[in-house]
Amino acid sequence: MLPAAQKLLTVAETAKLLRVSKPTVYRWAASGYLPSIQYGQPRAEGETRRGGAIRIPEAAVTAYLDYAQPTTEVA
Prior knowledge:
Layout: E1 8-9, H1 11-18, H2 22-31, E2 37-39, E3 53-57, H3 58-68
Antiparallel strand pairs: 1-3, 2-3
Helix pairs in contact: 1-2
């Protein structure tokens, strides 16, 4: 069960924040590169229609952005 305080983002919101396409977010979620939560109706093996919905934890998106943006320190 999910903690109540965890904010979840849609694929579209995630794509906008990460500046990538929605198919890229789906691919990253399917491969495990980006943590995701799938819920709703499961689909049968071999069925072509989509089943359920995917949500991305906001903390995962924030962590990705922090990792992807290099820090520039001026000495």
